[in-house]
Amino acid sequence: MRAITLDSREESKLLLTEVQTRTLLPGEVRVLIKAAALNHRDEWCRKGLYPNIQNGVVLGSDGAGIVTEIGEGVAYDWLQKEVIINPALNWGENQKVQSASFEILGMPRNGTLAESVIVPVDRLHDKPTHMSWEEAGALPLAGLTAFRALTYQGDIQEGENLLVTGFGGGVAQFAVQFGMALGANVSTSSSSPEKLARAKAMGVSNTFNYLDHNWITKAVDDTNGFDLIIDGAVGDTLNHLIQVAKPGGKIVCYGATLGNPSKIEARKIFWNQLKIMGTTMGSDLDFKNMVALVCEKKIQPIIDQVFKFDQAEMAFDRMRDGKQTGKIVLVP
Ligand SMILES: NC(=O)c1ccc[n+]([C@@H]2O[C@H](COP(=O)([O-])OP(=O)(O)OC[C@H]3O[C@@H](n4cnc5c(N)ncnc54)[C@H](OP(=O)(O)O)[C@@H]3O)[C@@H](O)[C@H]2O)c1
Could you tell me the CA-to-CA distances from 142 to 22, 90, 92, 218, 327 in Å, in that order? Predict the structure, then answer.
């Protein structure tokens, strides 16, 4: 089958090539991929900035498709089913934290940027019927991350002020959509006036350009501060978030695109009783609840652009350059 692999010999570090597939183990299924999507994780792998990188692995965590083969012990009903794949493997039983054997599809295990992928059957969920293949393929990883950040970790309540930073990002857009669906008063930030206009058109109450040095004052003036902030950038901007959090508020970080902060406003954290916490993807229960919300509220992922597999380098470069608004999708 054709697949996009990580290849250190290539200038782009990507190679669309023939990959040998294997026979199924008991409990596994083969899913013919109709659409897959990129996450920043795929770009970190390409840059060699992800732990335990293995050359030759098929990248990709997100995918939707049709079950074409089942392994021993898998119910026949799964054959020909239209499915989405939960890319979080071996979370375990503890809702608070993943187990030591937690793994994400697409490194070190072969992922979804391929004509087909092999996964354990318990990773499958029915494809939401209101979504196209491209939308369904774009949902899993970023949707799961945003949902857990908002609900289990952030404990968002109806009417609370929510700030989601970096609206251009995949996780951020789901956090905005889910926040609105859960009845929060949602604000977002971006470096791009066009992306902010798009957010406004979707129903976001307040928007801020985080490159504008006045944005912190403006955010506090306009909203009186935020009960919950969802952020994937961290770096020194964490101190800005500490400024705009309401006393007693929470900041939930799911990524650190800007790296570590060089200093931190400790006084404001303890005096204002702030909770700063981390989150990573989510449990099987989080995934099930995320899909239920998406289906109940008929939420549709925002698709930035759809590329063919042979345009993978363009797709990855678009993510590297932060040009996207929404998910970048790849189809075989
Ligand atoms: N822990 C997890 O489970 C998990 C899951 C998914 C992602 N992540 C991590 O989270 C980060 C984002 O992932 P993604 O897939 O959503 O990435 P993405 O789609 O590539 O989004 C990156 C976005 O970051 C925003 N950004 C850049 N500088 C910023 C700043 N100073 N303040 C606020 N936002 C800023 C930009 O927003 P604008 O274009 O709007 O300016 C950009 O579009 C990555 O580091 C990724 O590795 C972690």
Answer: 28, 18, 20, 29, 9
**pLDDT digits over 165-224, tens only?**
999 999 999 999 999 999 999 999 999 999 999 999 999 999 999 999 999 999 999 999
Helix, strand or coil, per DSSP, at residue 200: helix
3-state secondary structure of 184: coil
What residue's CA is closest to ligand 1, atom 26? 166
- What does CATH list as the number for 2-139+301-331? 3.90.180.10
Is residue 237 within 6 Å of ligand 1 at its C-beta?
yes
CATH class of 144-278: alpha beta
Minimum-distance ligand 1 atom for the alpha carbon of 40: 15
Domain boundaries, the chain: 2-139+301-331, 144-278
Does the reported pTM lie above 0.90?
yes
Asked if residue 324 lies in contact with residue 318, where contact means CB atoms within 8 angstroms, the answer is yes
Q: Which of 39, 139, 281 to mutate to test the pocket of ligand 1 (most atoms within 8 A of CB)?
A: 39
